[in-house]
Design brief:
With about 180 residues, the chain is an all-alpha fold. It contains 13 helices and no strands. It binds fe (ii) ion.
Length: about 180
């Protein structure tokens, strides 16, 4: 399947790139995030979204360095554009809103901020900081906002250098189930 081949190729070529934490690769981060979604009995679409949420960093090599230079490279939009030919809103929306979900959570959950990694705190600033009350209310009306918030919480937990996960092929089944017909 074209979609699976493309996704596999991206992870093979760029999955070893390091994530914002030392010793955590992009592939490890993606697998940990998908595994957390699977363990909470999420839908195949949300597991797929969790696996692919940062693919914008892999297909755009400038994305990470631009954050370091104070520019928002909108990796969530780049991911959604890349994945749009194959997936519907149930996969695309949680990916598209996972950065806004961080802005939402930092505005609504006082404990959440303390969970953020150093890289996440840095990027939060570039991404606009916590939402205002009005932005919080607007965000809650967006389709799949709850899935975006779940994904965001797993995202923060998926940065362990040593956590064991199933391999990429394990999650391909969920991608198959999520591709739009
Ligand atoms: Fe992430």
């Amino acid at each position: 399947m074209e979609c699976i081949d493309n996704i596999r190729e991206v992870f093979i070529n760029f999955g070893r790139d390091h994530f914002d934490e030392k010793n955590v690769t992009q592939l490890n981060h993606a697998l940990q995030c998908a595994y957390l979604a699977e363990k909470e009995n999420s839908t195949p679409a949300l597991i797929t979204a969790s696996l692919l949420h940062d693919i914008g960093h892999l297909i755009n090599e400038n994305a990470r360095s631009s954050i370091e230079h104070g520019i928002d490279a909108e990796h969530e939009e780049k991911a959604a554009e890349f994945l749009m030919p194959w997936f519907g809103d149930d996969v695309l929306c949680p990916i598209r809103w996972h950065v806004d979900a961080k802005r939402y959570l930092t505005a609504t959950d006082p404990e959440y901020f303390s969970l953020l990694s150093e890289g996440s705190v840095k990027s939060l600033e570039v991404q606009g900081g916590p939402f205002s009350k009005k932005e919080v209310r607007e965000f809650e009306k967006i389709p799949y906002f709850e899935d975006a918030v779940k994904l965001r919480r797993w995202d923060e937990q998926a940065k362990s250098p040593s956590k064991a996960t199933p391999p990429l092929e394990h999650f391909v089944t969920y991608i198959h189930q999520s591709v739009k017909t």
